Amino acid sequence: MNYLSLKTTRFLFSISFLFSFLSVFAQNHGKIKGTITTSDGDAAAGVNIILKNSKYGTVSNDDGTFDFNKVRANSYTLQVSLAGYETAETEVTVTENETSTINLKLKVSNKELNEVIVNGKKSNLSKKTDYVARMPLKNLENPQVYNVIHKELLQEQIAVDIRSAVQNATGAISKIYPSGGLEISFRGFSTGVNARNGMETLSGRSSISIDNAERIEVLKGPSGTLFGSSVSSFGGVVNLVTKKPFETSKTEISYTGGSFGLQRVAVDFNMPLTQDKKVLFRMNASANTENSFLNYGFNKTVLFAPSIIYKATDRLTLSLDTEIFNTNNTRPTYGRSYAAGLTNPTDLKVDYRTSLFADDLDAKTSSPKIFAQAEYKLSDNWKSTTLFSLVDERVDHSYQYYTAWKSPTEVQRMVSRFGPIHNNFTNFQENINGEFSTGSIKHKLLTGINYRFTKGTFKYATTQVLDEIDVTTDFEPIRKSDVDPKLKEMQFGVPNEQTFSVYASDVVSFTDRLSVMLSLRLDNFVQKKIEDTEGYNQTALSPKLGLVYEVVKDQVSLFGNYMNGFQNSGPVNQPDGSILILKPVYANQYEGGVKVEAFNKKLSTTLSYYNITIDNATRTKPDGYNVQDGKQVSKGIDFEFIANPINGLNMTAGYAYNDNRIVKSSDPLIEGNKASGAPENVLNFWVSYKLQNTLKNLGFGFGGNYVDKQYKFEDESFYAPSYSIYSATVFYDRPVWRLGVKFNNLTNTKYWDSYGMAQTPANFLVNLTVRL
């Protein structure tokens, strides 16, 4: 670890430790604790609670509990206020060195409460989720590190695409694949937004819309045990949680315009379809058009995402979530090779905003998706969840551009056309969740099975080098008419694949502070025979272990985990004609750290150290034979800091240090080198403040991202330089409308992603949202 990263880590750790220390040892005059429930007896989570005419305020926990510490001895009125509902109040007397206990029942159902929270201003500190552990488990009880990005933060930042949204997660950086999908890297490994409400939603060629996102969950570390190899990378999982229907009628219309011809309209429409509110409907839709900052290029998208919930009985709830997302855009240019002496994009003499290819070389994709769920309450402590998903990704055509730089001024240009391509992913899943006790020991149990079936077709056409030009002279961009006559059509068979998995997870609580997570997955992967290629069958066993001890109940927990990820690999033909049957490639992570949720839920922070090792990576020897003895080690630090120290002020920051190296390779020259696309230091922050008195609807926000140097190739011959970019916003937010202005890349910094692709210079956005 270099001096800068060590110094930064010590500073951030000192802040976290100071908050924890003060939280534990602060002297109290008196305390108030209690529980808030809804009219139907469920826990009321995320409710704002205040003591009238005082400085005290807090938010109820996921189980409905709350507490006030260090309260002066006096009589108070405790108040719970929800927009559109009767305010609940009760009197409480605080006595020095004693705890007063209060329980309140709201005149609102759990579904109505969720609607208020969803459409209100949920705290960015909330980490409530049923997807990360596939069971209800509080952050302090969970041995896994994860980040949650709420839609309220994205609205404040006027985020208009999924790429900018995920960069709020600690250590996450994003880029666009040459094929058009979104690639996200953290902990030194790449993944996509591969999960939607916990189910598979691969979209490597069609991307994903942000307009139907309630929140984005970023799970850190190999997560194959609960999510399988198709959803999880060795770095973790990104799960998109969609907006759900609720019980009142509400419509939100949003318009965003800005630099490079951006015009964007989004609609969020919700209403109950029956008077008894047993059938609920919601539609999210958007249309977007914009030009590239380059002299050629564009992006057009259309989204339709209807969803419906039917409460058939008191025990059975059915839901259907669908989406159609169509895109028509140009792809980014990928540099295939660089002559010796060219070390980074600043060496190239092409103008930063000049494209080498015309925008009639475009791409058209569509991705219809269907997700269905049946949730049945077996008893008070047990439920069954049956899920089905169908993702149908289609590429009509996709022109993709490549360059080979021969000198700082001379470049060869090539184009390939992909499509038609069809990828179909079908999933069936059954989960049983329950709670029970064996004596004084409590259990939270998950058991599940999953069947996955995939099929597809793949066609593409490619060209040799089309031409070689000097970028310092006048030249024409390559057009479709230059490419199509020279394309050579090719087609590859895509074998059908199926995976059958069984898994179980048991969180064993020995006391109210000490718990252990024991998880295991058995995964059988089958690839069918196609043409002259034999099929194969692999079985992988993936365990996960976790330990949590709450040093301070509901405030500070120490945790450790062992997590496993795996990838199935096909047989490899050897030079002598033999076939090497490869074992699944495993990644094993060991991690330990501390989580803090203190100061009446005004602070949330996580600090951890991890080590991820891949012992059986495949490599090719100089004689052409393949062996499975490669090794890669990724280790580092994750630090997240979220705080709401005073009303109106929100702070989010993340720092990640990562050292990901190739320990063994068929090429000894790269042993010890850093992995490609794995920056050593990544930093993000966002601070916003909304005025509380005069001009109380006016707010401001400021944030930034720092990304260290990233190598494009593992021989470390070419890299993208480090960069820092900053953004700011001003907004005026009223209950029925919101106006915001956002300035991105304030310093007009020229920067590139790890593929060497130029990124957007200074730009602005203006957003108007009306709520009906």
- Main sheet characteristics: 26 strands, mixed
- Would you tell me the structural class of the helices and strands? mainly beta
Instruction: Give a count of the beta strands, DSSP E runs of length 2 or more.
Output: 45
Count up the helices: 6
What is the global morphology? globular
The end-to-end span amounts to: 53 Å
| Mean of pLDDT | 87
Low-confidence stretches: 17-27, 115-120
Percent helix, as a range, is under 10%
β-sheet strand percentage: over 45%
State Rg.
27 Å
Keywords:
single chain, 772 residues, mainly beta, 26-stranded mixed sheet, five-stranded mixed sheet
Describe this structure as you would to a colleague.
The protein is mainly beta and 772 residues long. 7% of the residues lie in helices and 54% in strands. The strands form seven sheets. The protein has a 26-stranded mixed beta sheet that branches. Strands 8-14-15-12-13 form a five-stranded mixed beta sheet. It is globular. The chain starts with a helix and ends with a strand. The model is unreliable at 17-27 and 115-120 (pLDDT under 50).
